[in-house]
Design brief:
Blueprint: H1 3-13, E1 23-29, E2 31-32, E3 35-41, E4 50-51, E5 53-56, H2 63-75, E6 82-92, E7 95-104, E8 119-126, H3 136-147, E9 151-152
Parallel strand pairs: 1-7, 6-9
Antiparallel strand pairs: 1-5, 2-3, 3-4, 3-8, 6-7
């Protein structure tokens, strides 16, 4: 297959090509009144696990810009202040990511599934009663929210 044809195949099928290097993922957690907002992932790696907004860092984009963009694209939210939660080395779901998670301020905004093809069920969940299974980066982010730990080696 020619290089151009391979690239077109990747674009048309949505497959991520293994470049031999880790990808950078950025996520943002939303908390309110002792609860966090989570949605069940669909049609992507980690399918049928619970997570929040997040995605790939784009070329030239800051981590904060990525977190805000993903929150708007996926959950229709305008994020104010961002607080760093953690960085993780994630080797799971047949992928390798360096993942950076933030806690995002959204005031009284209510998240909605702006990309319904990417998520199914959703809601606010108490930290002591979370749906399972959690998307691994989200599990680390929520552990960080509870404990203050900010690095997960993946080992």
């Amino acid at each position: 297959m020619a290089v151009g044809a391979g690239y077109a195949h990747v674009i048309l099928t949505g497959m991520v090509r293994d470049s031999g290097k880790p990808l950078v993922g950025v996520g943002v957690v939303f908390a309110r009144d002792g609860k966090v907002f989570l949605a069940k992932r669909e049609g992507s790696h980690g399918e049928d696990t619970w997570a929040s907004a997040g995605g790939h860092l784009e070329f030239g984009e800051s981590l904060e810009e990525c977190a805000r963009r993903e929150a708007m694209e996926e959950l229709g939210l305008t994020v104010g202040e961002l607080r760093f939660l953690c960085v993780s080395n994630i080797i799971a779901y047949d992928r390798h990511y360096v993942d950076i998670e933030f806690l995002g301020e959204i005031g009284e905004q209510e998240p909605y599934l702006a990309e319904p093809e990417g998520f199914t069920e959703h809601g606010w969940f108490r930290l002591d009663n979370l749906p399972q299974p959690l998307f691994l980066p989200m599990a680390y982010a929520l552990d960080s929210l509870r404990t203050g730990r900010n690095f997960y080696s993946g080992a």
